Amino acid sequence: MAREKLVLLPGMMCDARLFAPQVEVFSDRYQVIVGDLTGADTIEALAHNVLEMAGEEPFNLAGLSMGGIVAMAVAHMAPDRVMRLALLDTNHLADPPERRAIRDAQVEKVMDGQLRDVIIDEMKPNYLAAAHRGDQDLLDMLVTMAMDLGADAFLSQTRALMKRPDQTEALKTYDGPSLVLCGAEDTLCPPQRHREMAALLPDADLVLVPDAGHISTLENPADVNAAFLTWLDKPLAPAGGGTDLV
Question: How confident is the model at residue 245 (pLDDT cuts 50, 70, 90)?
Answer without folding.
Answer: very low
